[in-house]
Design goal:
By secondary structure, this protein is of the alpha/beta class. It has two domains: 5-126, Response regulator (Rossmann fold, 3-Layer(aba) Sandwich), CATH 3.40.50.2300; 131-247, Arc Repressor Mutant, subunit A. Helices cover 39% and strands 21% of the residues. It contains eight helices and twelve strands. The strands form three sheets. Strands 2-1-3-4-5 form a five-stranded parallel sheet, with helices on both faces. It has a five-stranded antiparallel sheet with strand order 9-8-7-6-12, covered by helices on one side. The protein has a two-stranded antiparallel ribbon with strand order 10-11. The protein is globular, with a radius of gyration of 18 Å. The two termini are 31 Å apart.
């Protein structure tokens, strides 16, 4: 079993120590840094199972750290801690590549549940079959390569965050099925928490802006009013062995 290591970049000492106390119950290693420069240095020196990153840090802000992590290193899950008043920064952080966020003041059991969910998702990805045996999904001009976690739209590679890809893949694997926001939180994020359905809304909106020709008239991620969302039905296929040239 792979070790579960967590880097906590948080300048509020009480919060950092509280996180270390509770995460140490199921993680093998929890390391704390209390400023942005030290946090980036620690992130670059070695591989981590998860980085918990506060946005408001002395020295270097959390957004810049997240940007550098995504530009310069192997993929590492990032969970952001944000103030409730920082909605624009929160959205920007997700666009840069953060996997999830929790707002302060946060519910500790919820944060722990999100951390556990991230580790479960990573463990599941490591157990996937060999790359060549995973399917490639085709729907109209959209191609999803599940093995490479890449999306191609009309011959153009689409840059998605890890969670955006997970959400799109979930819809594509269940075309036509309607999901409520609560179901998507549970099945894609790995937890359910009343009041956080706006997390789903934000991801749906960003996903549409990247894959829909007209986001206001979506073809792929369709709203079912009063219920939730579904993947648009139509001509689709799954080829188990062929990987389109554009995805190589």
């Amino acid at each position: 079993m792979e070790r579960k290591s967590v880097l906590v970049v948080e300048d509020e000492r009480d919060i950092a120590q509280l996180l270390k106390l509770h995460l140490s119950e199921f993680c093998d290693e929890v390391v704390i840094t209390n400023n942005g420069c030290d946090g980036l240095d620690a992130a670059e020196k070695r591989a981590w199972g998860l980085i918990i990153l506060d946005l408001g840090l002395p020295g270097m802000g959390g957004l810049e750290i997240c940007r550098r992590i995504r530009e310069n290193m192997r993929y590492t899950p990032v969970l952001m801690l944000t103030a409730k008043s920082s909605e624009p920064d929160r959205v920007l952080g997700l666009d840069i590549g953060a996997d999830d966020y929790v707002t302060k003041p946060f519910c500790l059991p919820e944060l722990v549940a999100r951390v556990r969910a991230i580790f479960r998702r990573c463990a599941a990805l490591q157990k996937l079959p060999e790359q060549e045996s995973l399917p490639v999904f085709h729907r109209g001009g959209l191609t999803i390569d599940f093995a490479k976690r890449q999306v191609d739209l009309e011959g153009r590679l689409v840059e998605l965050t890890a969670k955006e890809f997970d959400l799109l893949a979930h819809f594509a694997q269940h075309p036509g099925r309607v999901y409520t926001r609560a179901q998507l939180l549970d099945q894609v994020w790995g937890y359910g928490h009343q009041g956080y359905e706006h997390t789903v809304n934000s991801h749906i909106n960003r996903l549409r802006s990247k894959i829909e020709q007209e986001p206001s008239k979506p073809r792929y991620i369709v709203t079912v009013w009063g219920v939730g969302y579904r993947f648009g039905e139509g001509n689709s296929s799954i080829s188990p062995g062929h990987v389109p040239h554009a995805l190589h």
